[in-house]
Design a protein that fits this description.
Order of helices and strands: EEEHEEHEHHHEHEHEEH
Oligomer: single chain
Number of domains: 1
Shape: globular
Bound molecules: adenosine-5'-triphosphate, magnesium ion
CATH superfamily: P-loop containing nucleotide triphosphate hydrolases
Number of strands: 10
Structural class: alpha/beta
CATH class: Alpha Beta
Radius of gyration: 18 Å
Strand order of the largest sheet: 6-7-8-3-9-10
Helix content: 25-40%
Largest sheet: 6 strands, mixed
Length: 237
């Protein structure tokens, strides 16, 4: 296992509302979402297209400010922080995996994984080793020098997972990370994501349409037209 592990931390989302102005008047996208993800916990967010999943994840990821309510990450309430403070907290505590692999095409797999390290303070040799180790953990140690165009979709998404974990975030946010993959590859990639995250003590919040993917997490949260609830039926034995 890698020497670097995530700092355990909790996510609290408290009564988050999100309202956007439209030509027809204000539109409420989230109606008071509240939940807690404990340190090391994995949870799925499910709901139909347009129900507000990406909006919620963007607010938790500090990319979008809620109209009302609070997001507390690692004990830090975030609503009153400046944009710069939010960016710092995001870089220190959160990792992201999106549907499109968003790898940088002219960088190798290894360079893509190490990329977030270069945004922070000087990269240590321990961090470089951790990056190489992560690529091994996602089964792509042999492909370190390959460019994204020479990797399959599933392989590219595994590189993106390694990159999301390279700064040892306490919380990994994934928005339909397997949506562009075939079912079998998607499930394998998600298993890997959950295994690597669990091994490092990283909490995971994953948006998915896929029941099988959700079943691999510890919990399901359901959004219906901007209203969030715990999916109790799914939790029943
Ligand atoms: N800035 C905005 N202005 C107006 N409407 C918006 C804005 N952002 C999102 N929406 C609308 O809010 C709703 C929720 O969007 P969101 O992207 O969160 O849905 P989603 O659950 O992620 O859907 P999908 O499964 O298709 O990705 C959608 O109807 C979307 O069109
Ligand atoms: Mg979405």
């Amino acid at each position: 296992m890698t020497a670097t592990t995530a700092t355990l931390q909790t996510l609290h989302v408290d009564d988050v509302h999100h309202v956007v102005p439209t030509v027809q008047g204000d539109l409420t996208l989230l109606h008071g979402a509240s939940f807690t993800i404990a340190a090391g916990e994995t949870a799925a967010i499910m709901g139909r297209s347009g129900s507000g999943k990406t909006t919620l994840l963007s607010i938790v990821g500090l990319m979008l400010r809620a109209t009302r309510g609070e997001v507390v990450i690692a004990g830090q309430p975030t609503s009153r922080l400046s944009d710069a403070e939010r960016a710092r907290l995001r870089n220190q505590t959160l990792g992201f995996v999106f549907q499109g692999y968003s790898l940088v095409p002219h960088l190798t797999a290894a360079e893509n994984v190490a990329l977030p390290l270069s945004y922070g303070p000087a990269v240590s040799s321990a961090e470089r080793r951790a990056a190489a180790q992560l690529l091994e953990m996602v089964g792509l140690g042999h492909a370190a020098r390959r460019y994204p165009r020479h990797l399959s979709g599933g392989e590219q998404q595994r590189v993106a997972i390694a990159r999301a974990l390279v700064r040892s975030p306490g919380l990994l946010l994934a928005d339909e990370p397997t949506g562009a993959l075939d079912v079998a590859t998607g499930e394998a990639v998600l298993d890997l994501l959950l295994d690597v995250a669990r091994a490092r003590g990283t909490s995971v919040l994953v948006v998915t349409h896929d029941e099988a993917v959700a079943a691999r997490t510890g919990r399901r949260l359901l959004i219906v037209e901007g209203r969030l609830s715990e999916d109790q039926a799914a939790c029943a034995p």
